[in-house]
Amino acid sequence: MSEKPATLPTHVGLFATCLVDLTRPQVGFASAKLLQDAGCQVSVPKAQTCCGQPAYNAGDNADARAIATKTIKAFENFDYVVVPSGSCAGMLKHHYPGLFGDDPDMAARARSLAAKTHELTAFLVDVLKVEVTGVAFDGTVTYHDSCSALREMGVKRQPRRLLAGVGGLSLKEAKESETCCGFGGLFCVKYPEISGRMVDAKVDDIVDTGAGTLLSGDLGCLMNMAGRLHRRGIATEVRHIAEVLAGMADGPAIGAAEKKTD
Predict the structure, then answer these.
(1) Cβ contacts of 23-27, under 8 Å, gap ≥ 24
(2) For residues 129-136, average pLDDT
(3) How far apart (Å, rounded) are the C-alpha atoms in residues 185 and 187?
(4) In 105-222, at which residue ranges do the beta strands (DSSP E only) sit?
(5) What gap in Å lies between CA 34 and CA 10, rounded to an integer?
(6) Is the terminal CB of the chain with fewer CB neighbours within 10 Å at N or C?
(7) How far apart are CA 212 and CA 233, in angstroms?
(8) How far apart are CA 214 and CA 241, in angstroms?
(9) Any idea what DSSP says for residue 178?
């Protein structure tokens, strides 16, 4: 990564997300590396938990509000809040302020947090103005635009611009790259049959590209698609874009079983 402008405030609070923390910590480490390589000071507050999106999507605004209050307190003193997930970033940026309609002080604090919250690839490209250098990935990939990243956070060109700097990588666009994978937070739990048909259509589209690797910036989507690919016996590897950009894509892919050693 190239250096960021010297005058830019750079103390970043990394909101790792609960899925990253519990199922794919390497994405958090890769995100921190990308930010540090760009010249940022990175902190990961121990007080962070879930962003509150499951409760919010279920209509449980009381619990969502309690979680949002805790998150705001943990992150409001950083220059920026960066999230390796368009879904969680969208919750902080677009939904937190509305949770505090009867509390002007907390609503103002929520708006302040929202103003400095960014999805990871958008932060690297739009704020830090960095370019990828010295990173290689040998293979053809396709990229899935998650619903929240694309429609809430405006993330489309940023990951592709970063991937263009990765040596040996070829990007093959899927016809339905912007179509939902069927995960949708609680949607896949409430409507499993519809979700299953959606992810099957998504898998067909991925296979049609001929790409050996599927990338995205949202771990929930990636886990959903990786699971379906595995159940259908398709060998496409699945990885978070941060792993590739940070040069940390040499371990097991998402959904792949760890190799056992004697």
Answers:
(1) 23/219, 23/223, 24/219, 24/240, 24/254, 26/243, 26/248, 26/251, 27/84, 27/219, 27/240, 27/242, 27/243
(2) 94
(3) 5
(4) 117-119, 136-143, 167-171, 213-216
(5) 13
(6) C
(7) 14
(8) 9
(9) T
Token digits of residue 19: 């899925």
The answer to whether residue 181 scores a pLDDT higher than 90 is no
Q: Which residues contact 16 (CB under 8 A, 6 or more apart)?
A: 28, 31, 44, 48, 84
Q: Give which of 182, 189, 184 is closest to 205, Cα–Cα.
A: 182
Collapse the DSSP code of 43 into the 3-class scheme (helix H, G, I; strand E, B; otherwise coil) and give the result: strand
The angle, 0 to 180 degrees and rounded to 10, between the axes of the packed helices 61-75 and 104-115 is: 60
The angle that helices 192-209 and 219-231 make with each other, rounded to 10 degrees, is: 80
pLDDT band at residue 33 under the 50/70/90 scheme:
very high
Q: Which domains does the chain have, with CATH numbers?
A: 11-125 (3.40.50), 132-245 (3.40.50.11810)
5 vs 230 pLDDT, higher one:
230
Pull the structure tokens for residue 184.
């949708």
In a 13 Å sphere around the CA of 12, the CA atoms on its Cβ side amount to: 28
Rounded CA gap, 23 and 256, in Å? 12
Give pLDDT, residue 188.
72
Alpha-carbon distance of 63 to 99, in angstroms, equals 10
Res 105: pLDDT? 97
